[in-house]
Amino acid sequence: MPKRFVVDTSQFSDLPRFPAGLDLAEALTEAARRLHETSTPDSTLETAVRLAVDLVPGADHAGISAVERDDRRSTLAWTDDVVRTAEGSGDPGSEAGHRPYWHRLWTAPVAVVEDSENGEGDGALAGLGLRSALSLRLRADRRRLTVLTAYARKPRAFDETALRIGRLFTTHVGIALDSATVREQLTEAMRTRDLIGQATGILMERMDIDAAGAFDSLVRASQRENVKLRDLARRIVDPHSAP
Which residue intervals define the domain ANTAR in the entry (predicted)? Predict the structure, then answer.
């Protein structure tokens, strides 16, 4: 289950909405800096929805969701409960579970709802007072989309400038997200290496064998018990961590 966030955008008010106070290059540079300061993919997504509201002209709310081919989805980050409700998981066949404008993002980078009360998008948006939506493809593969959506309470809130800024912004978010993912994977690899090293040292002392023999013993036990090597090493290092 992906981690979920509720974000208070008032805590992030030092980046003014474009174009008040910052030109586009300065605003995107500041956004990129803030995104690359994040330490995990989850915190990158949290920061991205904050920035989207401040950076994309017309945006009042923002959220990021992962969408499957069958329209199942999970909301990864949101700015408030309105977005949580708008993007919340639902039965793909129901009105609450259907986002027809997101389907366009399998083949196009942007999808826009100009006025939800004119039959665009879906009834759920209009019921929440969200008149406009700007959805931007953040990541895509054959099975899953990651979508950043900015919402507005006014109809036709997102013009060509908003689309251009939104596309530039999602490029920065994607790069920062990839970097944070790599950092997290490297950190986990280092932790796993250290854990296996500690477990090997314990086995060397306990069984009076050398390092190679201790590691081989650890690998064989992992295979025999059908347990991941790192999980077995954690049990040896900290017996109280065993389920």
Answer: 176-237
